[in-house]
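FAQ: What does a ligand-bound record look like?

Like this one, built around iron/sulfur cluster:
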Amino acid sequence: MKGTLTEKILKRHLVKGDLIPGKEIAIKIDQTLTQDATGTMAYLEFLNFKVDKIKTKLSVSYVDHNTLQSGFENADDHLFLQSVAEKYGIYFSKPGNGICHQVHLERFAKPGDTLIGSDSHTPTAGGIGMIAIGVGGMDVASALVGYPFSFTCPEVIGVQLTGKLKPWSAAKDIILYLLQKLSVKGGVGKTLEYFGEGVLTLSVPERATITNMGAELGATTSIFPSDKITYKFLKSFGRVKDFIELSADKDAEYSKIIKVNLNEIEPLIALPHMPDNVKKVKEVEGVKVNQVIIGSCTNSSYKDLMTAASILKNKKIHKDVSFVVAPGSKTILDALIKNKHLSYFINAGARIIETACGPCIGMGQAPNSKGITLRTFNRNFKGRSGTQDAEVYLVSVETAVAAAIYGKITDPRKLGKYPIIKEPAKMKLDDSLLLKPLSFAKRKNIQIIMGPNIKPLPEDKPLQNKIESKVLAKFGDNITTDDIMPAGAKILPLRSNIPEISKYIFSKLDPEFYKKATEAKGGIIVGGENYGQGSSREHAALVPQYLNIRIVLAKSFARIHKSNLINCGILPLTFINPSDYEKINAGDIIVFNDVISSLNGKKSIIGLVNNNFNIDFSYNLTDTEIKILLAGGKINYIKSNL
Ligand code: MIC
Ligand code: SF4
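The answer part, i.e. the structure of the complex:
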């Protein structure tokens, strides 16, 4: 990675290890962000450390996921989050202010700095030239008390952009193209670093669309240089002081270079039910559409909304389509009101909803049964929309609007003249929903408010040398954290209540799972490749921890979920011989005799299945991770180190 931008920023923040891909490193964290659906846990974890102020340069607590408030639970969580932010010197972005990643980009993301966030799309800020990584809440809690963030040093892949996008092709199509090429596992253990003359043709929000969906590739993060385009963006938000110019050296060494000629990018579409199931829009034209939604942290920027509104000026949405728009931030919504473009949406027949994640996380706007919905979002996992048999397609804003007008999937190039959108030189800012940290003196009297839905965390219990457990369920490849711990309007409000939310574990794939786990007082989960892909939600590990599950066996793990398991004291083991996966079935009893001695001696761990045959498991764990596991989880580990 010599001379790469990634190396430069990591080097400046390195506190442990050497920048050798695959080896453990630890870096200093400048900024953190949380959102409400993972934030309550992160701050409960933080409160365990009993410090009186945070140690980061800047931290922001956003409320954007759980804003439906169908009962008292969400509102109670918001009060808790606000009280913690006020007590500890954290910015608080109130519900309605916007989606965490969009607001962070606009107001706080800083080229050259490091950011971790308890949300998998934190790399959105890579669009402005920062190292931004999605993590579990526990890692944010640790950074808040000044603990460096440890992770496996990624390999740096260079993505060389040449040329310029043609009208009607968008930044979304670039990342869909990469997903088609690399798949949802293609970025695991890697940073995607963009360079080349094509970079200058993309605005910061367009770059952020690309780094945002690097999460769908499984990448550790993605990053763009900071250049004159970045300067212009920061200037428009009154943040010239945050600008520094940054790029890779001319002779930077990438482990691999992927060349993308932007002239050749066509409108693309991800078909149900995976973001890498990508085809050209023209190949699926004509499919009738029931719903179209513009929004989410991927595509709700000023340019996205202005492009959509301009296309819709003096046009009508097809009578059979429900067309929904969720602006990414209050600032963008306000700009659209002032320049009248919001009325183009309204006159065309759009439904304008709150500036929040909303339908992206299944909070409202669930499609009709078997409904076909085109969304500008980043994930189309089965059932995530709230309708189990719906078919969700992921598209650019341009393709979304074309479908909304014609009522069927349509190549946007049929829409005629492409609207050119000029970004405003100055955005009008209003901070009525963004609360600044209080002075230290004022913080003293703040009381933390905990409503009845906020329940204590499961306890970290040190690992045992002998673990005997039953296989509760066996799943296939690419199990998502949405499969493990679903979201949506019914379950999301329970995010602060582990005992209650635990009843929904695997509820869509294996409705008996909770019963089996409680009856057996624990157990083992078996998965295939890329187990735990998708969201950073810690609940997919906290709930198994609460249910006394100490081991997960899989062919391979997704990065964030694997760290979450470790932080919760759960051992992620992989099959040394992948075909051994076939030999294990639900109901089998496995005995692991020498867990601690094997971990200490860095030897493989052997499991005796049904008292009959042995299977060898490996674990790719850093020294710190082994210590966390031995302590029974990260809270125990950090407490003993503070
Ligand atoms: C998501 O897109 O799945 C979420 C909701 O933003 C998650 C976080 C969560 O589950 O709370 C993520 O991506 O990390
Ligand atoms: Fe919110 Fe969706 Fe972005 Fe997750 S992916 S942060 S739910 S908008």
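Follow-up question: can I read anything off the structure? Yes, for example: The first strand starts at residue 14 and ends at 16.
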